[in-house]
Design brief:
179 residues, mainly alpha
């Protein structure tokens, strides 16, 4: 049998880490994989022209804020990157498009425009990931549906969680749509 291409190996080499950290943050692993593919093409040693590092291309300050000791360590980088993506999803009310735009251009830019900023790179980034997710989900399940569930802890605090599995409790549907 022919050996798997390096791209295929790179894409599957991190599956367990992606699944663990995505689920810990209540994010679809498909979304995390699509972000990693767009950010670094699964290269854990990637460094951008502006200094973003590793699989999920964390900026040095962001990595430090997230407690990422080694941004080139796949598990540390994915843990930090999924945690950051979770904070962006929470900040923008579960709107995946806005969270992706904030991941690319920064949350301040999204808040200034109250939408995906009119930057070509950011619009292309959001479209690329949205299309990638839709393509993968269409193959595996037919469509992407992300559910938002608000749970109340025993202490009375509300906790928002996101899942790609239909919950048995009341929920909202968060959909990806191109505007």
């Amino acid at each position: 049998a022919a050996a798997a291409s390096s791209e295929t190996r790179r894409g599957t080499e991190f599956d367990a880490i992606i699944d663990d950290h995505a689920r810990a943050q209540g994010i679809s692993p498909v979304l995390v994989r699509a972000v990693i593919e767009a950010e670094s093409a699964f290269n854990p040693r990637a460094v951008s022209r502006v200094g973003a590092m590793g699989l999920m291309q964390l900026m040095p300050g962001t990595a430090k804020d997230l407690g990422v000791a080694d941004p080139f360590d796949p598990a540390d980088n994915i843990r930090g990157g999924t945690r950051y993506l979770r904070t962006l999803l929470d900040r923008f009310g579960g709107d995946v498009r806005l969270a992706l735009a904030a991941y690319n251009a920064g949350p301040g830019a999204v808040e200034r425009y109250d939408n995906v900023p009119p930057y070509r790179e950011t619009r292309n980034y959001v479209a690329k990931i949205s299309n990638r997710i839709k393509g993968v989900e269409a193959i595996t399940r037919g469509s992407l549906t992300i559910y938002r569930v608000t749970e109340v802890t025993p202490e009375g605090a509300e906790v928002v969680k996101y899942t790609d599995k239909k919950p048995a409790v009341p929920h909202d549907i968060v959909a990806l749509r191109a505007r």
